[in-house]
Structure formats: C-alpha cells, structure tokens
Design goal:
The complex is a heterodimer of chains A (about 425) and B (about 90).
Chain A (H helix, E strand, L loop, with lengths): L4 H9 L20 E4 L3 H14 L4 E4 L15 E2 L8 H13 L1 H5 L10 E5 L2 H17 L4 E3 L1 H7 L14 E5 L3 E2 L2 H14 L3 E3 L4 E7 L2 E7 L2 E4 L2 E4 L5 H6 L7 E13 L7 E4 L4 E5 L4 E12 L7 H14 L8 E12 L5 E4 L5 E5 L5 H18 L33
Parallel strand pairs in A: 1-2, 1-12, 2-8, 4-14, 12-19
Antiparallel strand pairs in A: 3-7, 4-6, 5-6, 9-10, 10-11, 13-16, 13-17, 14-15, 15-16, 18-19
Helix pairs in contact in A: 2-7, 2-10, 3-10
Chain B lengths: L1 E4 L3 E4 L4 E5 L12 H9 L7 E7 L7 E7 L4 E7 H4 L2
The chains are: A alpha/beta (about 425), B mainly beta (about 90).
The complex binds flavin-adenine dinucleotide (FAD) and zinc ion.
The site of flavin-adenine dinucleotide (FAD) has 39 residues of chain A, from helix 2, strand 13 and helix 10.
C-alpha cells in the first residue's frame, strides 16, 4: 500500500478499515541468497538497499527479539555530520544526504527534522577547536558556523550562559543537524524491505554458523538451520558474541549507554543542544518529552540498564546547562548495549570467512549512520567491493596503522 | 553496583575507576612480535557473561583490583588485589 494524503483521506472516509499490517509475518524458508543477522537500523537498512538498489530480494533478516527492539529504538536520535577524520568525514556526509531524502525513498515518514544542532563551548580553547571543526565541515561542503553568546541568548534564552563554573563562550551551529523518529526509521526500512520480498523473521536468534572449507554455508538458529552463501552480521552490541560463533576475534567492547525522557511539556527546546563540559545532549521529541543523555557508564556491560552514578551526573549537567529543567519530572530511563571499537569508528568489511560480512563497532553514533551503513553494507554484500564513501572501515586497520580516532583517545573503547 | 575492596570493604561504584580487561596484566614479552602486541592492545574477548577486569579504588586506597563480574547482571563474583592476580 502506497502511503499518501489521498490514502489518508480515503481511509478516513471509509472508517479507517482498509489499513494493512505494515509488514508480513512470513514462513521461514530453508534457504536464502542472503541472510542478514540483526533486525536493528543497520540490518533493516541493508535489506532495503539490497532489494531496492541491487534487486536482491531472496533475503531474510533474522532478529532474536522484535524488530527495532535494540539500540535503534533506544537512542536519543541525534543526526549530524560533523566528523573530521578521513573515513568518517565522507561517510557521515553521505549519510546526511540519504537522510534528506529518506522519507520519500521509503514512502514512510521518518520525521527527519533538521531543526539545527547547537554545541556549546565554554573556553577560548574550546571555541578554537570548534572553529577548526566548523572549517573541516565547511571544507567538505556541509554547513557549520561559530555563533556568539548573543545569538545563543536569542535562540535559546533558557541556557545559563553565565554559569559560574562553565560560562558559555560561543557555540558550533549546524543548521542541517537535528533528529528523526527512531522507531519510524526501523519500521520504514522494514516495510520497504518487506514490500520488496524480504522475509523479516522475528524471535529467531542465530546460535552458530555452518562453515565449510572457509566458506560460510548457513546459520544455526533457535528456529533451525537456514542456508545462505552470503551472510551479513549487523548485531551492534552483540558483535563479539555472534562473531565468536564464527571464530571472529574483534577489537570491540560492549558498554551500556543510558538515555532519559521527561514528561511531555509544551514546545520548549527547539534544537538539539549539547553541553561542552562533560557529555550531555538534549532535544525535545514531537510528543513533548525532553530526551537526553550523557556518557557511557564506563564499564563493560551487556545489561540494557545502567547504574545511578551516571543518572546523577546527567542530572547535574542538565541543571548546569538549563536550570529550568529542574521543574520537569523525569519519566523513564533505559540503556542500550554499545559496540565500542578501539578507535571509536565502525567496521563495514569482509571477514576471513568467505561470504561472511561484518558491520559493527558503531559506538554511540550509529543512528545517524544507519542509511549510509545499510547502503554501503548492501553494496559490499552485492558486489564484493567497498562503497567509495565507506572504504576505510576495515577490520584490519589497527594492524595496518590506519586508526580513525576522532577523539584522539587511543585504544580505550570507553573514552571514544 | 558496589565493589568490595580487600582493603576498605564494600564501597559504592562512584569510588572506583574502570580500566578494562584483566588481560592487560599479561603483557607479552618485548620480543613477542607484532601479532602478540596487536592482540594485547586491540583484541578483546568481550564475553556476555563473566568478565575479568581491572578496577582501581581511585577515591579510596588507590589499589588496583582484579574483579570478576557478570556483565549481563552486574553481579560481582570475586575481587582480589591485582598484584596477587597476575597470571
Ligand atoms: C541510549 C542511546 C543513545 C544513542 N544516541 C544516539 C544518537 O543520538 N545519535 C546516533 O547517531 N546514535 C545514537 N546511539 C547509537 C545507535 O543507536 C546505535 O549505534 C545503532 O542503533 C546500532 O545499530 P543498529 O540499529 O543496527 O543496532 P540494534 O538496533 O541494536 O540492532 C542489532 C540487533 O541485532 C539483534 N541480535 C543480536 N544478537 C542476535 C543474534 N544472535 N541473532 C539474531 N539477532 C541478534 C538484536 O536483538 C538487535 O535488534 C545511541 C544508542 C543508545 C543506546
Ligand atoms: Zn580500597
């Protein structure tokens, strides 16, 4: 069913009885051309581009839980393209272009909102470093500028510019930055892939790989064996666990990142805003809730929940930046498992096993990456070649000395 | 999460700083070769169950601790001084 204004009108006039389920609940076949493991943003996007761009539709997406129940449905939905390192720079720039046409491409409203992103600076040095970042962004052809205190005061009068400890000196403004509706991204990709013939299989966990003479031939799952000569892993926080089933030893640690939402209030925060001292970022959802988060909990974790010290730190940062926030009640908090890599950048590559492809290491920036990641992973699986805009995300890059270390913090996953 | 420091007793998570896998205690010999160092610096087993880790009681006695923790439940299974844990 094609979604349109006309369809809404028609359904409205006929009692909304004609809407169809958004995707099928298909029978699991015993063999596919391609299997994608993981029904998160990246797995579903990969299925969409495999079908749409490369005409490969005999595909199954295997998801151990329900579609979109992982990080894709748990993140704070910030979409930006302000990376500076070669490898990341062209990749996130490409992803932004895909975001800008995504709702049309999917015929599904992902509510991509380029409301603007403001990153606050609190010292002259920070202004300098953000100026460098702005120059890098502009040099690549995306847009960023440094704005002064007065401009910030006009745009966001609720920010405590004169905080005694962390006064605001200026900000980095990216007008194309913003948010999107996380669930809609998963659902939109799922619906598109399904409508092109991809089987979306939920409650089906991969438990092992069948490998013959160095070539993958299928997977073992909680619903039996399934054959395929090409298999792509996109399991985010569980990369090491699933990788180990195929003998992959990965440069990844799993950490927990928490997020928070308040009760819904009237429009208050128009932009996505980040605090430059410590790690804190906030935006307001279309439902009115303030959505915000901070740093990792800073220890390995596969629990989709965190500890109280981080809750405390995030609350402190929010009060330092926007004192008025103290009047709003927090409704919920939750956690997601982050696949933290050793340089903070991801992998989209072949593995040492023929036919087995790896997508992971997204750290806490993989939401904005989903479109380009899906497109690049589909390209790699379909053609055997790396897409031009994702050619540096190699699994052996630490061996060859090609780190993509945006933060410059070295081989310590929790610091990226 | 609370960790029992062998010197100080059970203390809140806020008093501790996490470094990473306890594999860091087993640094290869200087002549072990590039592959061994690559493995040491970059590769992590990253299990979803029991993980052996290095924590420092940084806001307490400063001791480095070898902690075995279930990373899916946050349960602490054992704590000893890192100096006594070196494999
Ligand atoms: C709190 C939080 C805030 C974040 N904020 C942002 C942000 O503002 N901007 C941004 O760009 N990014 C953000 N991220 C990061 C982003 O959400 C992730 O990097 C991205 O979603 C990961 O890719 P994914 O969507 O494919 O992962 P997931 O949605 O986690 O998908 C992986 C799927 O694999 C499945 N799986 C695992 N093991 C198996 C198995 N054995 N068999 C079958 N299936 C399996 C899982 O169930 C899961 O559904 C945030 C993450 C969190 C948790
Ligand atoms: Zn102590």
């Amino acid at each position: 069913m094609f979604y349109s204004a006309f369809e809404i009108l028609k359904q409205g006039l006929t009692g909304n009885k004609g809407w169809k389920p958004v995707w099928r609940n298909p029978e699991l076949k015993t063999e596919y051309d391609v299997i994608i493991i993981g029904g998160g943003g990246h797995g579903l996007a990969t299925a969409h581009y495999l079908a749409k761009t490369y005409g490969i539709t005999n595909v199954a997406v295997l998801e151990r839980g329900y579609l979109g129940g992982g990080n894709i449905g748990r993140n704070t939905t910030i979409v930006r393209c302000d990376y500076g390192q070669p490898g990341n720079s062209e990749f996130y720039s490409h992803s932004m272009k895909l975001w800008e046409g995504l709702s049309q491409d999917l015929n599904y409203n992902v509510m991509h909102s380029q409301r603007g992103m403001l990153q606050l600076c609190h010292s002259d040095e920070q202004v300098g470093s953000y100026r460098k970042r702005a120059n890098m962004i502009n040099a690549r052809g995306d847009e960023a500028q440094i704005i002064d205190r007065e401009t910030i005061r006009k745009r966001a009068p609720y920010i405590d510019l004169d905080n005694a400890r962390f006064p605001v000196r200026g900000g980095l403004w990216q007008k194309r930055g913003g948010t999107a509706r996380h669930d809609a991204v998963a659902w939109g990709y799922a619906r598109s892939a399904d409508s092109r013939g991809v089987d979306l299989i939920q409650n089906c966990a991969v438990t092992g790989f069948d490998i013959v003479n160095g070539q993958v031939t299928g997977v073992q799952t909680t619903r039996g064996a399934i054959k395929a000569k090409k298999i792509g892993m996109a399991v985010a926080g569980r990369s090491s666990e699933v990788g180990a089933m195929a003998g992959l030893r990965l440069p990844i640690e799993s950490h927990v990142l928490q997020a928070f939402v308040t009760e819904g209030i009237k429009p208050f925060i128009d932009y996505t805003i980040s605090f430059g001292m410590g790690h804190f970022y906030i935006n307001q959802s279309d439902k009115g809730g303030l959505v915000f988060g901070g740093d990792l909990d800073m220890y390995n974790s596969y629990a989709q929940r965190g500890n109280l010290p981080r809750v405390e730190q995030v609350a402190e940062a929010s009060m330092a930046m926007i004192p008025a926030i103290g009047k709003v009640r927090q409704l919920r908090s939750w956690g997601g498992i982050m696949d933290m890599s050793m340089d903070g950048s991801p992998f989209i590559d072949k593995t040492h096993i023929d036919g087995l492809f790896f997508n992971g290491g997204w750290c806490y920036g993989g939401f904005k990456a989903a479109p380009a990641s899906g497109a690049a992973f589909a390209h790699l699986i379909a053609t055997g070649q790396h897409a031009e805009y994702a050619s540096k995300f190699r699994l052996d890059r630490y061996k060859t000395g090609h780190m993509i270390d945006e933060a410059g913090t070295g081989a310590s996953p929790k610091l990226h | 999460m609370r960790i029992s420091c062998p010197h100080c007793g059970e203390r809140d998570l806020r008093e501790y700083t996490y470094l990473g896998s306890a594999k860091l205690l087993d640094r290869p010999d200087g002549d072990a070769g590039a592959e061994a160092f690559y493995d040491y610096v970059y590769i992590r087993e990253n299990p979803s169950g029991e993980n052996a880790e290095l924590w420092q009681h940084s806001s307490g006695c400063s001791a480095w601790l070898h902690v075995v923790r279930n990373v899916s439940t946050h349960e602490i299974l054992s704590v000893k001084l890192a100096s006594e844990a070196k494999a």
